Amino acid sequence: MPHRNLAELAHESCKRWQAESQVKAAFSCVVPNGMNGRLSFAQVDELSDAFAGYLRAVAGLKAGDRVAVQLPNSLGYPVAALGVFKAGCVLVNTNPLYTETEMVHQFNNAGAQVLVIVDMFADKLPAVLAKTQIRQVVLASVSEFFPAIPGAIVRGVQRYWNRVLPPVTAPHIRLKDALAQGRATLAKTPAKTYWAGVGRHDLALLQYTGGTTGVSKGAMLTHDNLLNNVQQTRAMGQSHMALGQECVLTALPLYHIFAFTANLLGFLAIGGHNVLIPNPRPVQSLQRAMENFPITWMTGVNTLFNGLLNEEWFVAYPPK
Asked: Per-domain residue ranges for the chain?
């Protein structure tokens, strides 16, 4: 394996593909009205370094401590997830739609100390924090890293039209403020310091099961497990993958292991452009992304594909 851990994979992939990739961005996020934001490979590398600095130097975490990330597909997700790996910490993927009871169970079971959560569900925090070990909350938005005007429009629609932004009463810090604080620490302690000692057999991720046969359980995945999965993904798809040229539509949630491994890690490793869809329901939410981006790959499940085949716009103008 060419990489010792996922932090090294992220850093070296971003560095290589910023120089070599033909795609315009590492990640884009598209909301149903077509407004979008994007991050380059260099930005993803720098921002995830800053988040690693925040976790270790500001939040006071140690190597191996657990960080829960409860975000939909959005630009904050790769920054937070890769930042957790760069901090030498363990990622705990969490479904944003979890109830308060499910959040309490998972956070306590995982031993999570920091939570990164989307602001749409921050009203759950007061009931959850009192029953868990969470000592720092980082708040992110679906329109995180959007340009100023589109971002303001998206937040305005969420707040005043859809009314999905509740008041936030629990102590928290905004993601951009956390990044600023973390960035200020990197001159003294570069992010590489935190992941230098992380080995392939160290724990990287606690991926929780769906809980269909009992309470949700955390599958313990090492850096080696996930690095091998990335290699397997490349081996299976290499005849149809052009390095530095692919554009993958990511409608499946990154907090599930399929999209996390194949889309986030797999396409980052080959210099692909991930187009993130925060919510694929209704299926029409994918239309603007398919119209405005040169999609070459799409991962999905049968219900998603069936839904697309019942959309007139998709049948008439499928991606080419």
From this structure: 6-316
As given in the structure block, the two tokens for residue 253 are: 């949630």
CB neighbour list of residue 189: distance below 8 Å, 6 or more residues apart: 53, 56, 57
| Exposure b/e, 2-12, CB count within 10 A at least 16 = b | ebbbbbbbbbe
Whether the CB-CB separation of 227 and 1 falls below 8 Å is answered with yes
Give yes or no for a contact between 219 and 207, defined as CB atoms under 8 angstroms apart. yes
**What is 6-316's CATH number?**
3.40.50.12780
As a residue count, the chain comes to 320
**DSSP, residue by residue, 136-184:** EEEEE-TTTT--HHHHHHHHHIIIIIS-------S--EEHHHHHHHHHT
Global model pTM greater than 0.85? yes
Q: Please state the separation of Cα 223 from the chain's center in Å.
A: 17
pLDDT tens profile 4-19: 999 999 999 999 999 9
Structure tokens at 258: 């399929």
217-to-108, 110, 149, 224, 272 alpha-carbon distances in Å: 12, 9, 42, 20, 32
DSSP for 58-113, written as a single string: IS---TT-EEEEE--SSTHHHHHHHHHHHTT-EEEE--TT--HHHHHHHHHHHTEE
Residue 288 near residue 33, CB atoms below 8 Å? yes
The rounded distance, in Å, linking the Cα atoms of 240 and 243 is 10
Main-chain phi, psi angles of 213, to 5 degrees: -115, 20
pLDDT per residue as tens digits for the range 20-60: 998 879 999 999 888 999 999 999 999 999 999 999 999 99
